[in-house]
Amino acid sequence: DISYIFDSSIAVSGKPEESIKAADNYTFFYYRGPVLMAARQGSLKAHFITHSGFGHEAPVTHNPPLVFNVEVDPQERLPVTGKQYESFIASVTQAAAEHA
Questions:
Q1: Residues 50-64: what's their mean pLDDT?
Q2: φ and ψ at residue 22, rounded to 5 degrees
Q3: Would you say the pTM of this structure is higher than 0.85?
Q4: pLDDT-derived band of residue 24, with 50, 70 and 90 as boundaries?
Q5: Which of 30, 34, 43, 72 can bridge 38 by disulfide, Cβ–Cβ 3.0-4.6 Å?
Q6: CB-based contact 100:79 (threshold 8 Å)
């Protein structure tokens, strides 16, 4: 789990406050093969494409992306919705476009 690795690196660094602030402004990208599936900023993660397991079902593109608060819902079962997430969606979508 990337959050465990990141939390461990913060503990070792000796500067947790600075590391946490840096992490809040950082985007983590999630790929399945060469395809960008999701991106995370802070506690929010946006799924641009979802794919059920490794079966024969076709991937599903989400526009707007599905948004999950991974600190509250680490299994990403219940997407969050509402106007309060519009700025996150804009930010993470722009980061994904610049990353491509």
A1: 87
A2: -65, -40
A3: no
A4: low
A5: 30
A6: no
Tokens representing residue 45 in the block: 């993660």
Question: CA-CA distances (angstroms) from residue 85 to 11, 53, 92?
Answer: 30, 27, 11
Distance (Å, rounded) from C-alpha 44 to C-alpha 71? 8
**Who wins on pLDDT, 80 or 33?**
80
Q: Amino acid identity of 94? A: Q
- The 3-class secondary structure across the chain, one letter per residue, is CHHHHHHHHHHHHCCHHHHHHHHHCCEEEEEECCEEEEEEECCEEEEEEECCCCCCCCCEEEEEEEEEECCCCCCCCCCECCHHHHHHHHHHHHHHHHHC
Cα angle 96, 99, 100 (rounded to 5 degrees) comes to 90
